[in-house]
Design goal:
Order of helices and strands: HEEEEEEHEEEEEEEEEEEEEEE
Largest sheet: 10 strands, mixed
Structural class: mainly beta
Strand content: over 45%
Shape: elongated
Radius of gyration: 29 Å
């Protein structure tokens, strides 16, 4: 009789166990967990501005998780001071729907629009940074711009426009005792592309045909011996793009100082294949008394450090002087 009771007890335990297994639902540890965001920028050390934040102060984040309460479009993200982390506006919390990261559609841009125009005055840090269109999109590729780990979205921004850096030096004609002072007053990039249309899903740009005169950012290095300029533009140029340099020299004549301005206009021939979205271009210019000598255009993908003598990756083009 005791044996029968033991058998019934074992059977009851097994039924209860099966019932508990069927009722057990695994818990998703990411469900309703706040999304954290960190940011980097490709080619950070060559990002324009020099004396300002390398990372963007704000950008717009889209996270689509195919859930009515978990889709976020163009949320303005603001950099937390002293870190590479970003936060949504006060009162807005981005949440994970679940741990299925593969299903999430994510992109990020420094504009919330589908068109973008560079600043015509890039002579200031603010003007340069406002012209630097950054973008990132999550893909299935290993080298995706956006990667998700745990509850964090890591954004690695790409530069979507072109950047042209010019290094200036003085020729022997201007390195004489009678010239007591010399400087570059301004550098202007004339006839370079100024606008693009942005495909936010693909993270690509399509150039329009608009061009403009862009006042370049300029600085000095090596105790004033070397001058540098840079400007950001859309990957398009007009029929006769130029770089126009205005210099000022002070000459001592019979004990009196005479100041004069000279303007050099350098025609730019685009490299083979044209100017490409995301590339950084470099060039050396030697300024003489009556003409400027130029080197070839160096090309570097991703705004990395290029070779101004044309030895960088890619093709090179030549510069012609007017």
């Amino acid at each position: 009789m005791k044996t029968k009771y033991l058998a019934f007890a074992a059977a009851a335990f097994m039924l209860a166990s099966c019932s508990n297994d069927e009722d057990f639902v695994p818990q998703d540890s990411l469900k309703d967990t706040p999304i954290t965001v960190t940011v980097g920028v490709e080619g950070m050390l060559t990002r324009a501005g020099y004396d300002t934040e390398i990372l963007p102060i704000t950008f717009y984040l889209t996270v689509n998780q195919e859930g009515t309460n978990y889709d976020y479009t163009n949320v303005l993200m603001t950099k937390n001071a002293g870190t590479a982390t970003y936060s949504a506006p006060e009162g807005t919390t981005l949440l994970w729907k679940d741990g299925n990261h593969e299903a999430a559609v994510v992109n990020a841009y420094t504009t919330n629009a589908t068109t973008f125009t560079v600043q015509t005055d890039q002579s200031t840090t603010d003007g340069v940074l406002a012209s630097d269109l950054l973008g990132a999109v999550k893909t299935d590729e290993e080298a995706s711009d956006i990667n998700i780990s745990g509850n964090n979205i890591a954004v690695d921004f790409r530069h979507l426009l072109c950047k042209f850096d010019v290094t200036f030096s003085w020729g022997s004609e201007l390195e004489v005792e009678t010239i007591t002072d010399k400087s570059i007053k301004s550098v202007k990039y004339v006839g370079f592309g100024s606008e693009v249309s942005l495909d936010r899903e693909a993270c690509t740009v399509t150039t329009g045909t608009a061009t403009d005169d862009i006042k370049a950012y300029a600085t000095t290095a090596d105790e004033g011996v070397t001058y540098l300029s840079e400007a950001i533009f859309a990957p398009y140029v007009g029929e006769t793009p130029k770089i126009v340099i205005t210099i000022e020299t002070t000459t001592s004549e019979d004990g009196a100082a005479v100041t004069a301005e000279r303007v050099f206009s350098i025609n730019v021939n685009a490299p083979t294949g044209g100017f490409v979205s995301g590339n950084r271009y470099t060039m050396n210019v030697t300024i003489g008394g009556t003409a400027a000598e130029t080197g070839e255009i160096g090309i570097a993908e991703g705004w990395e450090i290029g070779d101004a003598n044309g030895e960088a990756d890619g093709t090179t083009g030549n510069m012609a002087t007017n």
